[in-house]
Amino acid sequence: MTRFVLGLAALSAVAGCTTSGKDTDTGTEACTNLVTNPYPAEDATNVYYRSTVEATLKTKEATATVTVADANGTAVAGASMTCEDGSASVNGLCWRGNVVVFTPATGFAASTQYNVTVTDSCGPSNWSFTTSEVGATVEPSGLVGKTYQLDLASGRFVEPAGVGSLLQSYVTQSVLIGVQTADSSKIQMIGAIGSDSDGTVQAACTQTIAFPSADFSADPYFQVGPQTTAISVKGYDITITDLEISGAFAPDGSYIQGAVLAGSIDTRPLVPLLDEGGPDSAICDLAAGIGVSCEACADGGDYCLSLYVDSINATAVSGTITEMNDPCSLEECSSDPKCNPDTGSGT
Q1: What is the pLDDT of residues 220-264, one digit of tens each?
Q2: What are phi and psi for residue 246, nearest 5 degrees?
Q3: If one looks up domain 8-131 in CATH, what number appears?
Q4: How confident is the model over 103-143, as pLDDT tens digits?
Q5: Phi and psi dihedrals of 32, rounded to 5?
Q6: 323-to-133, 176, 206, 327 alpha-carbon distances in Å
Q7: Exposed, middle or buried by CB within 10 Å (0-12, 13-18, 19+), for 113?
Q8: Where are the domains of the chain?
Q9: Spatial contact of 163 and 292, defined as CB atoms under 8 Å apart
Q10: 229 within 8 A of 152, measured Cβ to Cβ
Q11: 160, 305 in Cβ contact below 8 A?
Q12: What are the helix (H) ranges across 186-317?
């Protein structure tokens, strides 16, 4: 049995199904509304405690149900939330096309096995997964001074749909986030773009990301932003507006699990990756072909797409982030292409 793994890089891989074709014993048509692609995967371990549970049906069924329970049979309550289509969740369920998504109300327990049952017109489909150690609270003071590398290429480019895999193929930089201060209520973090040569080192002569102070009462979970920054995709700088980064710290602070980077990207600088010399609308035209609409950018024009990357590898690295509010005012940056376009291409 296969289940749903949401991520554009995996769209071409479907490993199997619960049932298909004709029943060889009776010659009658078997049930065809198959449940495929589990997320978390069947028998997965080290699952993030704030993960959703997702499955794809061949055809959406409004009456389909998803139940998640621990080994003792205690059911997990679903979240009350507004779904992407604007509807209200039902018992924690939302639909994303023909993908049914269950969101737990308070997250799962750490280091715990859970059993999932998805029931539709074909009957029940079952699988299990086990959560990781992440979920227990951490000592905030032990996080201060730590820096983490978010390897964007390792994540699942959930949005923009149909275009995310293109971005994932060409991402050349990581994002660094560092903890400046933290206590039981607030956390202050700073961000930086990783260098091209070594993503664990802050890129020189690049403005740092001044995240506003964020709530840390849900320790070990954090969410910082929104803020605006730029990253490089195959040498092309693209701006991310309303950038938010979230995740949860491991008990010993050595990594972040469930790291998510979300925001809105201007697609115009990426057009040469798709069509050298093409119109500003080239990527938006591609997205429109699969039912995804571009949105208005801050400077006008419907050229922006929502960006959502989850499951990003984020490990602690040596060193700290040096705050740079105006790097081009520094003498050592005066000849850098970012500060002086006349010295080079800047890409």
Answers
A1: 999 999 988 877 666 677 888 999 999 999 999 999 999 999 999
A2: -140, 170
A3: 2.60.40.1220
A4: 999 899 999 999 999 999 999 999 999 999 999 999 999 99
A5: -110, -5
A6: 32, 12, 10, 9
A7: middle
A8: 8-131, 140-328
A9: yes
A10: no
A11: yes
A12: 271-274, 282-288
